[in-house]
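Rather than argue in generalities, we reproduce a single protein record, letters for residues, whole numbers for local backbone shapes, just as it appears below:
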Amino acid sequence: MPRKLLIVEDHPLFSEALQLVLAGSFPGVHVEAAATLERARALLERDIDFDLVLLDLWLPDTKGLDGLVILRQQFPKLPILVVSAFSTPSVVRRVMTCGAAGFIAKAC
């Protein structure tokens, strides 16, 4: 069971919804959030005890797979789960090829 999660999502409502769902699903889990890749990197550099990162692909300071590639290079053993509205099969394949632990589509 994950103990410490980091949500990297710039949309405040979606970020808050993810935080509420995760906190409600995993009692005792600690969830932090960052709205930019730079903030996420700062949190991860400060605290290496995160068990999982949930990463949006489209952030104010990065686009597409750049954020995933940067985090994968800087934190190679940290599981990163991509959560994105861009969920075509080609995007999912590219995400997995870049080292994501999994992919969750934001679609309803």
About this structure: The chain has a mean pLDDT of 93. The chain has four helices and five strands. The longest strand covers residues 4-8. Residues 8 and 39 are 9 Å apart (CA to CA).
